[in-house]
Protein 1
Amino acid sequence: MKINEKLNNEILELNKKLKDELDLKIKSYKEAYHFDDEKFFKELAFCILTPQSKALNAWDIIEKISENRLLYTGDELELVDYLNTIRFKNTKAKRLVLLRELVGLEPKKVIFFTDDIFEIRRWLVENVNGMGLKEASHFLRNVGFGENIAILDRHILRVLKELNVISEIPKTLSYKIYLEIEEKMRKYSNFVSIPMDRLDLILWYRQVGYMFK
């Protein structure tokens, strides 16, 4: 693997330039694990709405249905009216209800049944309807456990390709391919001495010009 030196230097510079903002973001993720159960559930529900939709729109919806309590009590028909700005709103309304039924009133206790973050991620993928490796990794990063896992969305994959960390962007991201690319990103993370959660924020910022959840 011959890293694109120009882009690599750009990433190292961004790491320096954005240090304070990155520090605050990582701190907020660590604090999120200690949220009460309702706020913690919001973080999980957010990652159900994000696939093929804008994260900003998904979070705006989560805020609204949390404030009016439908996130915690609403059925599919009540929820779907609030999901107009994201794709597959009917499916995602159903998934929010299924998620609530799965993790109940104490989601943290249900999800964090072990200290092994990779085992937790595997459980999320196997048990949460609509949650793949990307969404599970996104959730775990957002509650403070992203130091060693990758959120492989299209923005991150494009930069990894440009860096020559990967030779091509796969047409489909199977479980096996996801883990293979994640390992390559992990090696690059070690190479530049930037933890994966911090690196994800830098690469995202480099592509879109801002940081979000």
Protein 2
Amino acid sequence: MTRLYGAGVAHAAVMVVSFVLAGAAVWGLGVEGLWNPDRWWQSVAVWFVGAAVLHDLVLYPLYSLADRASLPTRSRTVRRVPIRQHIRVPVLAAALTLLIFFPGILNTDDAAIIAATGMDRDPYLERWLWLTAAMIAASVAVFLLRVLLAGVRPRPAGAEDEHHPRGPSSRI
């Protein structure tokens, strides 16, 4: 199965169940339920095509390249703690919350927001900025804690220190 499919039986079962649930949702909503003629960008069909085409064929390669180019090889760790994840997580979370709440953040369609939430759109941008700042601060705090803990852990037996007299600089 793994050679033929590329993954295990559990993965295949989860994929089949996911496709069955998606098919049941489309069947239950009907094709008309997937399209909003008044606001085309709010249609499920548009978001599905956007996710499948725009993300997978355009955005994923672009942010993969940006991620690879973001940090030079020498500066990817501090005391053996990788930096990359502490950059990725808050950036991804900020981008996802922007995507989900962009009508409110970008001040579009006040009537739909008031109808859906009972609140106006005024606090959205400020709250999104505070949320983004909090996610960045939490990521920095976790990174610093990991760096501090990496500094107090005992070194494994046989590990050489760069500044030790018998370290790499004293070799012939």
